[in-house]
Amino acid sequence: MMVVGVAEIALEITDAMTLKDKRQVVRSLLARIRNSFNVSAAEVGQLNAHRQTTLGIAGVANEKAYVHGMLEKIVDLIERDGRVLLLDYSIEFV
Length: 94
What we know:
By secondary structure, the chain is of the alpha+beta class. It has helices at residues 19-36, 64-80; strands spanning 3-13, 40-45, 52-61, 84-93. Strand 2 and strand 3 form a beta hairpin.
């Protein structure tokens, strides 16, 4: 059985003064997530707001518990990043 988990994560980029500042932080964070976990990750919302963003992350495995744990670890990684403030997140399964 295949399980697909999707996380939607709302963030505030605390020190961003311009879109360039925001995109640098977002690009770095997405690269870190992709390199640390075998997931797809992209900026999916608030593309033109310079202090807020929404990330979409998707992972696939054969066990729901594994996917859920992996997405929770990604949320923890984001929470520990001092450049961003986690506003909200949700995890869903398809």
